[in-house]
Amino acid sequence: MNSKQLSERIGNIDELLIQQAESVPNYGKARRKHRVRRIVATAAVLALMVCSCAAGALAFGQETVIETIVEVPVEQEMLELKDIGITLILPDSWKGKYAMEANEYGEYHVYSTSIRDAGKGGGILFYIMKWGQQITEEQWRNEDGEWNFAGNRYIMTTKDGTYLLYYASDMQCAPDAYEEYRQMEKQVKDIRFIVDAAL
Amino acid sequence: MDDREIIQLYRDRNEGAIRETSLKYGRLCSFIANNILKNHEDCEEVVNDTYLALWNSIPPKNPDRFSVFTGKIARNLALKKYEYNSASKRNPEAVCALEELEECVSGKDYPENEIENKRIEMAISEFLREQEEEKRNIFVLRYWYFESVRNISIRTGYSEGKIKSVLFRLRIKLRKYLKSEGIEI
Predict the structure, then answer these.
(1) Is A94 among the domain residues?
(2) Residue A194 has what DSSP assignment?
(3) Which of A85, A116, B1, B36 sits between 20 and 30 A of A169, alpha carbons compared?
(4) CB-based contact B102 A145, cutoff 8 Å
(5) Can you tell me the ipTM of this complex?
(6) A2–B108: do the CB atoms touch at under 8 Å?
(7) Chains A and B: how many Cβ contacts under 8 Å?
(8) B 76-135: CB under 8 A from A
(9) Do B160 and A21 touch (CB under 8 A)?
(10) Is residue A63 predicted with pLDDT exceeding 70?
(11) What is B94-180's CATH number, 1.10.10.10, 1.10.620.20, 3.40.50.300, 3.40.50.720?
């Protein structure tokens, strides 16, 4: 089949689908409204938690004990994505707390196992994608290409393509797991990379 | 005027049918034709030919959704004109949309067969019904209405990058879906 023939077939799809698309709403606006409400709700939950902790501390008047933690260097926590030729050096504290899954779109999702296994949400911390074309950092910064479907960070371009790290969109955890999720999520910026086919 | 009443005018061979169609759906026809052709004269010609085609097809046809029926005729006529136009005269946006669809197919000429065409159309409809509403609408806006990515972005409130990405993923999925349905692409 050629594209013209496919276009003709598309021309004769269910009329209801065609009619629905005629009056498409502004989804982006609706989502932003919903996101703001969710952020406000989460902030309210956090504020309550902070207040209750402070109230508890005052009520019991316990001495504050300062613990000195001596960190013993351990082997670096590494995650190799062989299919796309990149290795991630993750925070050591993530050992045993994450897993990786790939989907049909070539996305490699890294998620928190404790959040997902407890049924408290998807727990996705970030995902890696390798784009087939070479995208310079300047293009990434200035152009609104296909790769910009979600917030992302430029990793590197090699002779085989470009690696981007995508931040999870949507809430990935229930409100009561937010602190736990946030602990890992804020360390995503510290992840480093080793790429096989650097230019 | 209600669509049922307009259709009745056609059935009564009342020339007011054309006037009423023009008032209610003239803009829609121009919009679709313009998305494909981007040439004022060609668009006007297509819109006029659409009215003629409606006059000649109703009766015996009795469309359930008159707006879509009218739009389909305009679309088909515009695509025919698009092919007829020389490469330099073709609308780059329509060229782009068709090039995007090339990713879903082998590119070989497919022997036309009415039964097989119907099967493919039903499969594409089913595929679209299985998608989320937003993605489905973006696909239809792009490949049925030939809307530009920029306009779809404005209408849906999503960035152009997101629109391109949604379309890219849907094309991959559509290709896989058609293959899984045993449709030779």
Answers:
(1) yes
(2) E
(3) A85
(4) no
(5) 0.88
(6) yes
(7) 144
(8) 76, 79, 83, 97-99, 101-102, 104-110, 112, 117, 120-121, 124-125, 128-129, 133-134
(9) no
(10) no
(11) 1.10.10.10
